[in-house]
Design brief:
Blueprint (H helix, E strand, L loop, with lengths): L11 H19 L4 H5 L7 E9 L11 E8 L10 H6 L4
Antiparallel strand pairs: 1-2
């Protein structure tokens, strides 16, 4: 859709960024820092970061209907990757 008529469509970029924010909030709530990380001198806790954003190729005056956000999860050894897998299938495929 034309950017002058945003009410006629869904902006994939806005939706993707909002979804990413919620997914990260949930991740950091569930896999936040633990005391042992300090004890063992870990420089940072578990992380979930976006690394690449892809979208439809439109003119500059068109709202992108879809977006694909690819990222990376790094867990400290005090969590198991199996704990994250349900998040991947339940939240990250939007």
């Amino acid at each position: 859709f034309h950017s002058g008529l945003p009410n006629l469509g869904i902006n994939g970029l806005e939706l993707g960024m909002d979804a990413l924010t919620k997914i990260q909030e949930f991740f950091y709530q569930e896999f936040g820092p633990v005391a042992k990380e300090k004890e063992y001198n870990y420089s940072c806790p578990s992380t979930m970061k976006p690394l690449r954003v892809e979208s439809s190729v439109n003119g500059l005056n068109q709202i992108p209907p879809w977006v694909k956000i690819v990222g990376d999860v790094r867990l400290s050894p005090f969590y198991e990757m199996e704990e994250v897998s349900p998040l991947h299938y339940g939240l990250c495929v939007v």
